[in-house]
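ok trying this again, last paste got cut off
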Amino acid sequence: MATSRSSDPRRGPDPLGTAPGAGGAVSAPDPSCDVVTVPARQGLEAVDILRRGARDAVGPVLHDDGGGTLGFLVPPGTAAGWDVPGSTCTRTDGRGLRLAPDPPVEGSDWLLPPGDDPATDPATDPALLRAALGEAQRLIEAADSCR
């Protein structure tokens, strides 16, 4: 997934390239969302955890072709209070974000694509994602300590 810096250095990397001037695609009607970016290993574990809990607990998820990160689409406003170590939450305000069917940035693809109607496709619940990322990190640390 291509990364670029947003115009506000406090917001961190912009994994979807949606910052002004980043060359993102034209916006779909009201695709507002925020994006939580995590290392791929932790993100894949979190996807498994969320999918085991409830089928609809996880919304669309992007991955970069290099396999280094995953991006979870979360409801707008999540970035304002996101504080999970090892992850970044970027506010997009819908700038340049397309939800379907093609990935929004060259060099990325959908791990879990949006449904047929992106306007009704639920984003991942931030509280559930926060818990899943924590559990994923604990699982990774336990697995690594066994080596």
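PB: full thing came through this time. The CA atoms of residues 14 and 115 lie 23 Å apart.
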